[in-house]
Amino acid sequence: MELIDSHCHLDFPEFSNVDQLWQKCRQQHIKHIIIPATEAQYWPRIQALCEQHPGCFWSAGLHPWWVNAQTFSELQDSLSQALNDPNCVAIGECGLDGGKGITELHKQALSWQLEQARDLNKPVILHAHKAHQELLSLLKKFQPLHGVVHGFHGSIELAQSYISLGFLIGIGGGITYPRAQKTRRTVSQLALEHIVLETDAPSMPLYGQQGKANSPLALADINQCLADIRSESPEKIANITSANSRRLFGLDLCDNRA
């Protein structure tokens, strides 16, 4: 059985001993982790992490929480160089967050990243929170695109709207919460070919772990929870969702290169 964490902020300060953590991940059949950047100043650190830990890959982007004139300029100046790194497999984390407020600069930064992804045929790691109609409108404008809606929670109809525009659905610890009935129904109905697994560690802890830092080691529990919801084997869930991540991020080519 193979597991892939499609979204884990392994560069965050909560992870003080990445060497030891990565060793534990490999022991738990976690073969790959995708580390999404939040802004350009952290790209060198993430790039070094991936060089030091084969099996880890990263994406270069500007998270909506950190959008300002300076970070947008740094993104524009640095993205092409970042994408020359063979371990940089996507653009993101980018998107819109209605809970934090959306300005024209947020839309400009996202539009620029979507345009680059389309022109370079790179997958997008999309942050989508309380801004789905604005996001869907922008995604339609920059077709064709492909990528993943990270940390998805919502209805089957919303999921299908993103899928129709080329996006997979990123499922994490949110499904372990009994109150997440809508999302649990959605993941029970979606074809597995549209789902990838993620932890979003150190954020998005599992049910019962509220207030604690999440870990990529939680991926096996998320996989088991999805298997229970769908009444399918954890091996099937792991194999298909991992194949989806491999295909989206081109990880087979990366493995062959290594």
From TrEMBL:
<protein>
    <submittedName>
        <fullName>TatD DNase family protein</fullName>
        <ecNumber>3.1.21.-</ecNumber>
    </submittedName>
</protein>
<feature type="binding site">
    <location>
        <position position="127"/>
    </location>
    <ligand>
        <name>a divalent metal cation 2</name>
    </ligand>
</feature>
<dbReference type="InterPro" id="IPR001130">
    <property type="entry name" value="TatD-like"/>
</dbReference>
<feature type="binding site">
    <location>
        <position position="9"/>
    </location>
    <ligand>
        <name>a divalent metal cation 1</name>
    </ligand>
</feature>
<feature type="binding site">
    <location>
        <position position="7"/>
    </location>
    <ligand>
        <name>a divalent metal cation 1</name>
    </ligand>
</feature>
<comment type="similarity">
    <text>Belongs to the metallo-dependent hydrolases superfamily. TatD-type hydrolase family.</text>
</comment>
<keyword id="KW-0479">Metal-binding</keyword>
<dbReference type="Pfam" id="PF01026">
    <property type="entry name" value="TatD_DNase"/>
</dbReference>
<feature type="binding site">
    <location>
        <position position="93"/>
    </location>
    <ligand>
        <name>a divalent metal cation 1</name>
    </ligand>
</feature>
<dbReference type="GO" id="GO:0046872">
    <property type="term" value="F:metal ion binding"/>
</dbReference>
<dbReference type="InterPro" id="IPR018228">
    <property type="entry name" value="DNase_TatD-rel_CS"/>
</dbReference>
<dbReference type="GO" id="GO:0005829">
    <property type="term" value="C:cytosol"/>
</dbReference>
<feature type="binding site">
    <location>
        <position position="200"/>
    </location>
    <ligand>
        <name>a divalent metal cation 1</name>
    </ligand>
</feature>
<dbReference type="GO" id="GO:0016788">
    <property type="term" value="F:hydrolase activity, acting on ester bonds"/>
</dbReference>
<feature type="binding site">
    <location>
        <position position="150"/>
    </location>
    <ligand>
        <name>a divalent metal cation 2</name>
    </ligand>
</feature>
<dbReference type="InterPro" id="IPR032466">
    <property type="entry name" value="Metal_Hydrolase"/>
</dbReference>
<keyword id="KW-0378">Hydrolase</keyword>
